[in-house]
Predict the structure of VOC family protein.
Amino acid sequence: MTKAIYPAIWFSEAAKEAFNDYVDTFQNSSIIESNPVVVSAKLDGVPFIGINGGPYFTPNASISFMVICETTEEIDRLWAMLSDQGEVLMPLQAYPWSPHYGWLIDKNKVSWQLYSGTLADVNQQAIVPTLMFCGPQQGKCEAAIAFYKTVFSDFIEQGSVHYPDGDMQGQVMHAQFIIHGFTLMAMDSGVAQDFTFNEGISLVIPCQDQEEIDYYWAAMTKDGEESRCGWCKDPYGVSWQIVPHNIDEILRTHPAANKALMKMNKIDIAALLS
């Protein structure tokens, strides 16, 4: 089975500009490839793509990026850069779970949680996508994690903590797990929210062959939702892109592949190559 997933961020038209800013913001970062539609990059060593998809979807805080920093100075530096023209959700200060933590939405509507912690606790992955189950998905975090455990054969559960009291008692306050060597976090929202998952941020599963594509597509859409071009939603509303691992090469070297892709829900590799 395939060995890596990575997050994708939807932009109206400014993916390159946004990722240029992120490369300047995060250490050990670079743009890998860029075209008018897709920008691929590494931010602090973590792979991302940005998509210029038009004004159809906007990221929200249902999927944020937890940035683990080992010094308060690094958190302060990132906070100053990311909060410029942004919105503070939780001010930068001490909390019971971290001596120096804050949550903000940057000018691109992307959510970042800056956390004073230890990289060893997140498998040396400095930026961790964090799923927040809220709105119509409130309280479903534990069930979703159980679902992912059945879908991904190499799923590794790394523990969870539940809300001890209040309206969310018994729901998941924090969970961490690994899929294909990639660390993810998840939680139920601690307060009621009026939003939920959308296509603004999705997770990409690059597949080695058609068999893998068929497997993940069937698993995610059985009680989920199909969309175009390899996009789908799982039963809990999280958006996934199930694509060939070399989709960029296919689209670049086969002139008719782009047009064929636009007509597909589940991707048919043979049809793209024909």
Observations:
- Residues 210-221 form the longest helix (12 residues).
- The two ends are 25 Å apart (CA to CA).
